[in-house]
């Protein structure tokens, strides 16, 4: 059952082997991942995990054989630092280095380039003939990197401002079941807005659908302290945007043109502010005139959301998110401080369920059926939300799994619809060390873990013609901290969470964040 294949990596031939097991015959395609891959330049190093130069990875599965290749993203950030063999463009954890030959406008542009890299480890859905590498950032001149999925070459840069005056967008856009594309982005000035942007499905057959993007709705934002955000929720009829109290200080961003301080200095968590949830009608782009608030939480990733009704005919949105009471961006400034932080790390990211009443007939607190989630009426048209913990806070459970994030679902069939299963990474320490399958209705779970193994975001691939939601495969790239152990692509049966096979790679790979399967 061993298969030996030769592939080309970094201009050298590499030997890779398939762990004893069986790759399903129907599993044909490519998993492409993105994540930080280089942290040291000359004698300098990046101090934040999100700042490393982006390295793209591709595992190709064909006829039960697996090959691998990787390439650095040739961003302006990467090219500038490589040219000088030092950190010119910093990021969240490093100061940037000013060029005295640049005028103030050019410095603003270079500051913006710095922010292109961090948090830049997601992919848009495939649009036309290529992928767009996307980012969550604050920038005035936004670009998207067009990636050739065949050879991972960086084809060109797309100036976002030439398409639409929305310089910041989430790293996790949504593709609707009818083929429409949605994202949330911010525009700034004397009047600032959170914008709902869309590409209609009728443009998806073109070579570059991104040229057809348009703004279909706006929500006013604080011009000086707008919310940071990384993702959002979508149902069949609505978009739900989480305006959280983790704020971007616009004044400090502008001051960076002179001070060149690291990006983390420009953010703040205001625990006196509530989390606000905005519900937007997808068809009209109009905000639903109901106000929803909750205790302050930080959220990178939404899991899923859907619409439902109770026995009395009251309609509401169920929204599941991975949230924490603190920011998850990190912020240690030296290797020694980072190591100490890892030893003492306590993380509380958990999958939580909120419900947002849309129509209601009655008075008093509304309780979601089969859940502890509550909605308490405030003034007319306003609700205060209390979430339900999808995973119970049993001490033994938390010690075993730790924080849970990087969620995945059967996206193709259940995004925006009622669903049952979510797949997560579990962090009992600083680096994820387990994969967790969760029944989001009951909280029951199955865990995959091996000692000294650190899996990446689980990606679900449905079996063709499957009739059950979890009938498919989970793919995850797994690394080890032991020099004698190989990195491998893990292939799990999504129903039982048992291993089917692993494709080992005899080169050391860095930890990859997000990815997609095609």
UniProtKB/TrEMBL annotation:
Keywords: Iron, Metal-binding, Oxidoreductase. Fe cation binds at residues 172, 230, 301, 514. One of its GO terms (biological process) is carotene catabolic process. Binds 1 Fe(2+) ion per subunit. GO terms for molecular function: beta-carotene 15,15'-dioxygenase activity; carotenoid dioxygenase activity; metal ion binding. InterPro entries: Carotenoid_Oase (IPR004294). The keyword rRNA-binding does not apply. Its cofactor is Fe(2+). It holds the Pfam family RPE65. Belongs to the carotenoid oxygenase family. This is Uncharacterized protein. The lineage of its organism: Eukaryota, Metazoa, Chordata, Tunicata, Ascidiacea.
